[in-house]
């Protein structure tokens, strides 16, 4: 097979001492920047971009291979340990990962995330190497109506699956979409929900929302219960950077399911890795309910961490393929990589493989090498990261607050962002207090602008005819799958409520 021969030639160019050193340096730097809350993988690539300008193109992009996946590995580390994900694509991993850390399994959670990221990246990069022509053809089938259908699918699926109550899930989604509407409306130029505050004209940054709801919300929640529930603040770590055979067997199907969710989403600009990670998380939660898994949502489920972590890196792998083959960046990190190519006078697209084939295949080979290097680094460093949880709780949460404030302020150096951060922190506290899920809110913020833009485009092309939204087999298929999923979820919720009533009935009778 021609692709295999070209890939082997790429390995021959990448497996030199100098190039391996560049991969290692990129992996370490990317992970270090990705761990910092408020920065994340895209910022890692952006900050390290100037460093590579003095290198030749091959060495530069080999280093970027390490930075690219290193930032993604680092994104979930702070989320697992401090409930502050480095980037929105790591939010879904934070839910069960942080619960595992709080229950004393921090190093196991980090190992699960590292192996999941490795498996997701390995599968997606392999798909790029051997099936990129077919994946590109699939990506071209999506138009505005298909993107809108995909956004609606993510809205309803996450709201109905992640939440125990569909009503609470939809309420959370409504809050998220409302936050997404803040700012200047692009087509009309009208300001919406800005209250004439200039700092709000560009909208509320997703990093501010994420840090406010998750990090500061967690700080306020812990502070509000410090006298009522002091035992819940005792966080420990066993410091073992490996998984038992039982845990590995439990996580393996979830890793594969997560990779299956993530790989196709790297081909289309539908919210980056957030959609597949939330869908993978929701699927694992539904399966946990069917199995009667009591760890999910309490002490932390290894499957609930494994699936979204694999999905996120699988999306990143195929996103790299889409950027190389089409010149289409479907994520912020890929967009910065595109700028790096252009800096060297290279234009990603169909002709890139013909004109600069040696560089492309060396880059793809270095992605495989970078994944192996990152897996080793993260497994070895997991005990060191986990020791963060041995810090006394009052110091730890004070540190989280300071990091959250600095991360939010670093975005645009605006005091308005800090005020919004505090308000969102109290909102996160109220949502925890009344069991309103955070995931639908976040997916509403992320996909709200996409859904609105694609809806307008679809209606503009069809002169206002709403039938265009269901005018293709692909949109009909998406809505059909959505209807089946919602119906299944309603039935599951009904059965669960009936069984709960039956269990409460005898208990009330005995009490009387």
TrEMBL record:
It comes from Brevibacterium aurantiacum. The keyword Membrane applies. The keyword Transmembrane helix applies. Keywords: Membrane, Transmembrane, Transmembrane helix. Residues 20-442 form the DUF112 domain. The chain crosses the membrane at residues 20-53, 59-85, 106-132, 138-158, 165-184, 204-224, 359-382, 394-427, 466-491. This is Tripartite tricarboxylate transporter permease. It comes from the Bacteria.
